[in-house]
Structure formats: C-alpha cells, structure tokens
C-alpha cells in the first residue's frame, strides 16, 4: 500500500510541473500576440 501511494505521488508531481509550463507558454504566446497587434 505504502509503495503504491509513493509511486502515484511521484507520477502526479511531474504532471503538475508540465501543466505549469504549458500555462507559462500560453501566457508568453498571448503577450507576443498582443505585441504584434500593437505594432500593427
């Protein structure tokens, strides 16, 4: 039981990190799009 719970927690951590990275990329893309719109 303990071993299984440790594995599940280890698998959940990298997934959360990937989500934060995707969110940061989305924010960067939105900033770039807004920059392009302002320049146009």
| Count of runs of 4 or more consecutive helical residues | 1
Mean pLDDT over all positions: 75
Helix content: over 70%
The secondary-structure class comes to mainly alpha
Q: In total, how many beta strands?
A: 0
Biggest sheet overview: none
Q: Rg from C-alpha positions?
A: 18 Å
Strand content: under 5%
Order of helices and strands: H
Give the overall silhouette: rod-shaped
User: Which ranges are low-confidence, i.e. pLDDT below 50, for 5 or more consecutive residues?
Assistant: none
Distance between the termini: 59 Å
Region (Disordered): 1-28
Biased composition (Basic residues): 16-28
Structure, briefly:
Residues 16-28 have a biased composition (Basic residues). The chain has one helix spanning 2-39.
Please describe the structure with a list of short key phrases separated by commas or semicolons.
single chain; 40 residues; rod-shaped; mainly alpha
Question: What would your notes on this structure say?
Answer:
This protein has one helix at 2-39. By secondary structure, the chain is mostly helical. The longest helix is centred in the middle third of the chain and has 38 residues, at 2-39. It is rod-shaped and about 40 Å long. The model has no long low-confidence stretch (mean pLDDT 75).
